Each structure stands twice: as structure tokens, then as C-alpha cells.
Amino acid sequence: MGVDETPTSVRAARAAYLGELLFRSGMPVFALLDAARDPGVVNVLEAGDCPYACLYSGHSGEIYKPYAPYLAQIAPGSRLLETLLMKGWGQSIGYFIGSRAEPAELLTHLRKFLFVDLPGKERRAYFRFYDPRVMRAYLPTCTPEQLDDWLREHLEWFVLEADEGAQAKVFVRTTPERRAAQGISDRLLLTPIQLPDVPASQDKVAHAPDSRIPV
């Protein structure tokens, strides 16, 4: 992982807050990670305690293993989660998603977005949706049809670092009923979060506002 000059106490406060936030909804949590941003990603996955799979399949997965994107299912209190939050947050190596889909089904769904057709060109290009810098710019520009194709029954929310590690951007899926009741068309609602810079008491963590990733 890259060098993070943020004080350890601040990183720990942010990690505690994010760790509670990620599991608040009660659904499985996954991380999309980009080894091309940091070769240490593969080492962290291999030394970790959570199941993972490469988004590239077959021969491509073997050839590009050191630089490939990965999907990992995150367990509360795991070493992998601690490493990602303490050392990876703010380094643009990936982000977190919530999904009720089976891991293999989610992996198949995400692989559909690895390539995009370029207008007016015969060649296809890689779509680096596993890079938080790409995704936080892409999601707000999606049409309703594009979001429907992205979300399907697979994706419920996204938690991405903002331009600075001191902030997070949370995109939460809305239901048709909620859109009809509120008169909105947004498939995803964005909530920006200013992360804490001092350790919070257990009482404050337990009672943090719960509107960002609703159960």
C-alpha cells in the first residue's frame, strides 16, 4: 500500500466510522480493488482472511494478475478490512459495495462492464469502474437506463472515498416506491460524509446518523 502521512489516530477514527457504516445495512459487503494502482493489493488479498476473485477470467487473469481488478467479500473485523481502511483509504485503490447477490453472480455481473465500445471506433476499451476516481465521476452522469443496467438486482449501495480521504461519497439505491412517493427520478441518492478526525466513543459510533445506508 502507498504511504499515508495522515496521523494514525485520525486513520483509526475514520476506519472505525467506516467499518460501522459499511455493515449497518446488514447486507453482504464487497470491495472492488485495483491492483494496477498499487501492486501491494495482491499481496494484501493473498495474506488476508476474506475470499476474493479476479475480475479477469481464464488466461487473462493469470497474465495480468499483478495489475488486475479484484472483487473481495469483506467480513466484519477481518484483517483485510482493517488493512483497507487503515492503509488503503485515500489511496484510490478501490471502494466498497453492498449486494444481496451471491458472490459468483455478482462477479459475473461486474465482468460485463470491463469493456466499453468507443463511438466511431472498432476497438473496445477497458472501463476502469473499479477505480474510485472514475466511479465517483461516472455515477452522477448515468442516465436512468444506464443505472438500471448497472444496478439490476445486484447492487444496493457504493461507498467511495472523495477527492480527499477526509470525506466519503455514499450512493444508495432508491426503490420505485420511494421515487414515486417523493417525486424523484434518481436511481441513486448521493450523501457526502465528512469523516471524523478524532476517535469517537463507542456510544457516538453506535448512534451515528443512519440515513446514509438505510437498512
Characterize the biggest β-sheet: 7 strands, antiparallel
Cα gyration radius (Å): 17 Å
Global outline: globular
How many helices? Answer: 9
- Assembly status: single chain
- Which sequence of strands runs across the widest sheet? 2-3-1-4-7-8-9
Q: List low-confidence stretches.
A: 202-212
Structural class, from secondary structure content?
alpha+beta
When the domains are counted, the total is 1
Q: Beta-sheet strand percentage?
A: 15-25%
**End-to-end separation:** 32 Å
Characterise the protein shown here.
The protein is an alpha+beta fold and 215 residues long. It has one domain (8-115, 125-206). The protein has 9 helices and 9 strands. The strands form 2 sheets. The protein has a 7-stranded antiparallel beta sheet, with helices on both faces. A two-stranded antiparallel sheet has the order 5-6. Helix 1 (8-22) packs across helix 4. The chain is globular, with a radius of gyration of 17 Å. Residues 202-212 have low confidence and may be disordered.
Question: How is the topology of this model organized?
Answer:
Elements: H1 8-22, E1 29-34, H2 40-47, E2 52-54, H3 58-63, E3 69-74, H4 79-88, E4 94-98, H5 103-111, E5 115-117, E6 124-126, H6 132-138, H7 144-151, E7 157-161, E8 167-173, H8 176-182, E9 188-194, H9 202-206
Helix pairs in contact: 1-4
